[in-house]
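README: folding subset

This subset contains proteins for which both the sequence and a predicted structure token string are available. Records are stored as plain text. Below is the entry for Histidine--tRNA ligase (432 residues), shown exactly as it appears on disk.
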Amino acid sequence: MQKVRAPKGTKDILGEEIRIWHFLEETVRETARCFSYQEIRTPVFEHTELFQRSVGEATDIVQKEMYTFLDKSGRSLTLRPEGTAAVVRAYVEHGFHVKKPRVKWYYLGPMFRYERPQAGRMRQFHQFGFEAIGFAGPGADLEIILIAWFICQRLGLPQLSLEINSLGCPECKGKYLDELIKFLQEHSQELCVTCRERAQRNPLRVLDCKNEGCQRVFSNPDFPVIQNFLCEKCAEHQRRVEEGLRKLQVPFQVNPRLVRGLDYYTRTAFEVKSGELGAQNAVMGGGRYDGLADFLGVKGVAGVGFAAGMERLVLLLSDKKSVFEEKGPLVYLAPLSPSAESQCLRLALKLADLHVPFYLGEAERSLRAQLKEAQNAGIRFVVLLGEDEEQRGIFSLKDLDRGIQEGYSEEELLSFLERERRKCCVHTPVES
Ligand code: HAM
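--- output ---
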């Protein structure tokens, strides 16, 4: 019989790799706490039109990559390809634009895009994202970029590069697009087939093309760049973002061809890239999306945010061979008779209360087998509870490192193990 495997472009996350995920998730949550971003959890599927209207009808995501299906009532639903549209939908749906227009939210979770799978590109992948909604000034753009940058530093990935650009407001963008389309039409014969088609459907995407012929077109000195089309307000906004980054000593490069793959961006756009990831080198991307809520019937809502590809970050963390020392159980509880088992469970509850990690053995297994299991799992302490201990009302504690065994009252045992627990920390990335 043919084996059933995980679908193409998806994967199980387990074993050693889980430690890296835990470290990453804890870094994100801790950063969110410090910067006062609250968690938001939106549904994994939404009405298809949400993405069509916000991400953009002409984008690759909407045209080719969405997992769209009809439910049993004939509604068109889509597995979320990204998080921002749903976060803004939730903002409007819960009336935040009226009751509390400025919110800072973050999220973590799976996203779905029907893409050609390759290293760092999955069909089910995970993002974490930060969104500051209701904030119009460049200070919010700076905070968002700084959070992205701070997380990279915290993860020990300082060699990443940051690229920024401005896409202007709809007015500047419109003027730029007119010029861009004109230029692309004039040089249509020099473009690759895909770009010729894109020039019609979504001209900004042409700027992403890596084809040599197209690159030659872009390096033409007359090739229009968006910076030359920014209105005074957009140019000033961009100037303040750049000045802020310089003051904060965050290294960056202005990339006038950075356009992003979603249509909702206005003004600031940015990406954090890694030289170690091959073709899928963007680990984080984001920008400002003033006016995204217009699609939902609410005008004038500003917003800025970013999302990071967690699989890509995990790849970078594994490549660096960082060691994520996640302390296993501190103590093995070895019941040596059926009646000792319930005593061990009682002790287990008290240890859990004290945040002491333990591993519970089985009374059916011999003392020797349980000691061996503790040793193989690298657990230092073993609590032995047999008939003798039960009669004397004590617990024997064996220290496998020091090879000694002593009797403890329950109270002494709990305070000893709690002290030992305090000496250990849970996730410690150590550069190897
Ligand atoms: P995005 O650039 O489409 O932006 O995705 C953000 C990040 O998700 C990418 O930089 C990449 O690391 C990761 N990613 C995207 N597709 C895949 C995939 N197929 N497999 C693995 N990783 C992937 C957004 O999604 C925007 N919502 C970001 C944002 C938030 N803008 C403002 N706020």
